[in-house]
Specification:
The protein is α/β, with parallel strands linked by helices and 284 residues long. 42% of the residues lie in helices and 15% in strands. The strands form two sheets. The chain has an eight-stranded parallel beta barrel, surrounded by four helices. Strands 8-9 form a two-stranded antiparallel ribbon.
Length: 284
């Protein structure tokens, strides 16, 4: 499959349906108004199968669909210099990369050097080993670990971040683990990437979290959910999540980067094309 060719075909189809990215519908348009997302990002895990077989073509196709930022989840055997060259050639930047906890502990120097070479700012741990986190004290110690990693990242000119799933909202001795982490970490050292789908699936209101912890969410994962009780992951704009209400609080939350993600889309390029088109037209 040619990812570039598929992207061009998809753009033509979206344009015919009247949902092409705004930049393609209005040549020479001015910068988006404050109530729009200026630079839409993509978590590349969404297109991992395509990245594995044709990383250059996939990166080019992602850019052609209107994305301006990407978040990595592995570099698929490419050197940092190769990755940066691909981004530059396609007008993309990579503000964040997903990592394991060991990457920012046992392998911090190598991890930081790669990020610096690519132009990445956020070293974002994607998940934790929940088998080691059974009590409030366990989560409190993890918050201390986050502070230590965050201090080291700051010394390297980087930022440390953490991405949640639904388990961080399951109470432990009456307290939500995500709350323990946020309250136990220094805002100057640790940022959070709120996965909006997993928050909603866990029965939480992202708006309430933005108000409870203002300025703590530098990044968000943007993925939609079908109606309850299924709450299945779906393309952004085709589900039930109230994006206008959520993004209206972007300044309160502190959001700098918006990354579209779908864990297992049936047709990855079609999925990310629809999500990008919806978000480019969204006003809040």
């Amino acid at each position: 499959m040619s990812t570039r060719r598929d992207a061009v075909k998809l753009l033509a189809a979206l344009a015919a349906a009247g949902v092409a990215p705004r930049a393609l519908r209005a040549a020479g348009a001015t910068s988006p108004a404050p109530d729009a997302i200026e630079r839409i990002g993509l978590q590349l895990y969404t297109v991992r199968s395509l990245m594995n077989t044709d990383m250059p073509g996939t990166i080019a196709a992602v850019a052609q669909l209107g994305y301006r930022e990407v978040e990595f989840a592995g570099y698929f055997g490419r050197t940092p210099a190769d990755v940066r060259a691909l981004l530059t050639a396609n007008g993309l930047t990579a503000p964040s990369t997903h990592l394991g906890l060991e990457d920012v502990q046992a392998r911090f120097d190598a991890t930081a050097a790669a990020a610096q070479a690519i132009g990445i700012r956020y070293l974002t741990v994607a998940s934790l080993d929940m088998r080691t986190l059974k009590t409030v004290d366990d989560w409190a110690r993890m918050a201390e670990t986050f502070n230590a990693i965050g201090a080291r990242a700051k010394q390297a000119g980087l930022r440390f971040g953490y991405h949640n799933h639904s388990v961080e909202f399951t109470p432990v001795d009456g307290r939500r683990p995500l709350d323990i982490l946020i309250e136990g970490t220094d805002p100057a050292l640790v940022a959070y990437e709120l996965d909006l789908y997993w928050a909603v699936r866990a029965g939480q209101d992202p708006v309430a979290y933005f108000k409870r912890y203002p300025g703590r969410f530098a990044m968000v994962h943007v993925k939609d959910a079908t109606a309850a009780p299924a709450l299945a992951m779906t393309d952004v704009g085709s589900g039930t999540i109230d994006w206008k209400a959520i993004f209206a609080l972007h300044a309160t939350a502190g959001i700098e980067h918006y990354f579209v993600e779908h864990d297992n889309p049936a047709a990855p390029m079609e999925s990310i094309g629809k999500s990008a088109a919806y978000l480019k037209a969204l006003r809040f």
